[in-house]
Every structure is written in C-alpha cells, then in structure tokens.
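Bumping with the actual sequence this time:
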Amino acid sequence: MIKYIVRQALSWLVRIFFAVNLTYFVASGFLNPASNYAGRFPPVQPAQIQQILKPYNLSTDDPLLLRWWRWLTGIILHWNWGYSPTGDFVNGQIGYRAGISAQLMLIATILAFAIGIALGLYQASHQYKVGDRIWQVVSIIGLNTSIIVVALVVVFAAIQLNQAMGFRVFYVTGAASPGISGFLPVLADKVQHLILPTICLIFITFPSYAMLQRSLLLDNISADYVRTARAKGLRLPVAIRRHALRTSMIPVMVSLAFSIPGIFTGAVLTESIFAWNGMGNYLVSTIGNNDINGATAVAAFAALMTAIGAVLSDIFVVWLDPRVRVS
C-alpha cells in the first residue's frame, strides 16, 4: 500500500507540473496586467507601466519564455510564486486565504457528510415511510436551490432574530471582528461569524450525500450477506447498520475525498455573499486584477488538493473494503 501511494503521488506530481505550467501560459495569454493602469488620471504612459511591472516579472517587454523561466526557477529554487501587479506576495495570499476557506468549508463539509450519512441510513431503514418521504422532499429542495436564495433566507432570519433578541447573536459578514482578544471571546466571535454561512453550505451539500447513501444502502439490502443476517433474526435497521453500511459508504467516502479541493479553494458565491476573504474570493480577484501569478498559484493549489483527494479515496476504499487489495 505504501509503495502504491508513493507511486500515485509521484504520478500526480508529474501531472500537476505540466498542468500548472500550461496554466501559466494560458493565463499569460488572456490576462493583461498593464490594463490595470488604463483610464487613470493623470494617464500612465505605456513605458512607465512596463517599468512598474518589471520588478514583478510581468512586463511584456520581456519575452514570454523568459518570464516563464524566471517564474519556474523562482518556485523550484525559492518556492516563490511571484507577485501580483499591485505588489502583493502570492505565497502570503494563498497561505492566508486557504486558512480562511478551510475554517468555513472544512466544518461545513464534515457536518454535511455526517448528516448525509445519518439521514441516508435512516431513510433506507424506513423506506417509503413518512420520514423517508419528508427527507426526500427536503433533499430535493436543497439540491435544486441556489446558494444565493438560501443565503437570503438565512440572513433575513438571522437579522430578525438579532432584532428580536436586542443584541447581535449572528454576524452576517466577515470571518472575524477586529479588536477581539482572549481565547473564549475569539472562539465565540468565530462561531458567531461561522454559523450562517455554514448553515447555507450544509443545506445545499448534505442532500447529495444523503441521497447517494440511501440509494446504495437500498441496493445492498438484497445482498446475500444482509439477507443472511436478517435470517438469523436481525431487524432490518440493525442489519443495514451492521452489515450493509460499511460497503455502501465506499462511493460516499470517495465523493468526500474528491471534495477536498472545494474545501480549500473555497465556495466563490458563499464567500462573496458573506464577505469572507478566502480562496474563492481570491480566485475572482486574481482574474479581475489580471493577476497571472495569483491565478496560476490558485490553479496549482487546487490541483494539489485534487491529487490529495485522489490518493485519499484509494485509502478509504481499502480501509472500508478489506477485499480490495492494491497491487
């Protein structure tokens, strides 16, 4: 298993290397950092613009291949992913914003996964009963409702509750309040900022896990090992929980593993609505600001997370199903 993981990791590193370099050339072809200075008053002359961009390795006075080589050697030798047209250090932006997105997305993903598994188990154990029907309707609504609509409803309810309580229970925007110190006050402030976007993300995410888990469990109910367990006297819910759940969780765990890129690259709309300066917002800003280095770094980070998810999915499969062996 260790040899397989190492081999897969090396394979993914090769793919990431070529994909990231291709992204750099594509970004260089479509993004023009000099356009950030267009329309300024007093006007900035083209020669002045190129002089401003030159220290950031973004000046088109230098050939593209030369700029690419400087960028690549900077990464390999110094792990320096470059600078934005405004002088922001890309490494610092990625590190900070990935942490912000992880705070939001990691908690929401774990809760959505746990709720989805529990509901899928409940629905499969109570197939076609009232509870199963109700949760099917809720899941369908969650799958087909835009995050924008969910956020509007949640924010409206939170504002009404804040007004009814007479003090601020929930914060609508931002990841933290300035000037807060002390462990408990900081923790409470984080929770107050996290609750609303987390609720929105859970509502649109858990239905996919729940419906997939329900479908897989229902498929496995007729399997020989489940029928044998029932023939020995186990009730259906117990037989499903003890015998069918482990095998049925394999595709769900694979789906969870491949959601890792989304955890760290963030949810663009959710971060925009709730003003979280995470990776989702950063991706949008890099494109809007013609930030070649920033956009390439985001793509590289997403590719790395995808590779980690792919390797974890293999580990989950072997862990959940001992019959699977990796040669």
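The tokens above came from a reply further down the thread. The chain has 13 helices and no strands.
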